[in-house]
Amino acid sequence: MTTPLSSILLVFAASVIGSVGMVALKAGANRLPPGLLGILFSWRVATGVALFLLSSVFYVLGIRHGSLTVLFPMVSLSYVWGVLLARLLFHEPLNRSKIMGLLLLLTGVVFIGLGNRP
Amino acid sequence: MLELRVVRESSRLVLEANASPPTRAHTSLTSIALVFLCTLTGAAAQILMKQGADHTTAAGLAGLLTNLPLFLGYCIYGVNTILVVLALRQGHLSVLYPIIALSYVWVTMLSPKYFPGDHLNGFKIAGVFFIVAGVSMIGIGSRQ
Asked: Which chain B residues are Cβ-neighbours of A79 within 8 angstroms?
């Protein structure tokens, strides 16, 4: 089964939106007052949740056509964007182990995608 | 004399302020444990949602709300989001976020038990090993 470019772009967008959602959660977490209630009133956390929902809409639209073997592992690209954005925005260290770890993780998700073929 | 002591006290405070890192230095084990827990509950949520999605009766929003497994799955996702935010307070995003990939591992290993059509195979087992190796590697990277 060939996967249309539109599906690939939609799932790619889902991965980017999902990682930005996670960045929003982190930005919210960094500014949270002590206690649990603050989470419910943080607009950054709310933005993160909204982005997760948007990301899942893009994903569902993306997987309507095309092969899940290609599209399913693509979502895990969000971990790559997340780590890069964390380096860029929160100045978190990025070292060889983290890059190697990400590559192993992506390989793993590709394998699970291959194993899920009908 | 008193003035001298105040100066000494304040310089000590300045030293302490400089010694403490500008950002949270590393990811606490509590945060790692919290996100790890979320991957387990997240996998349970995914299995519930799949079971719910397989048995949808009504269409649209009504179908989502009256479907108990699907509804429970979304509730778990809500709780997980709160737990992840709590974990992110004392941890690096670049360490905690990739841990969430472990939910692929649990779903892959658990779904053959719940869905008769699902079977483990060589690809899936290799995938599980690669993901565990990758997440461990990132954990090691965070301690360097």
From this structure: 97-98, 100-101
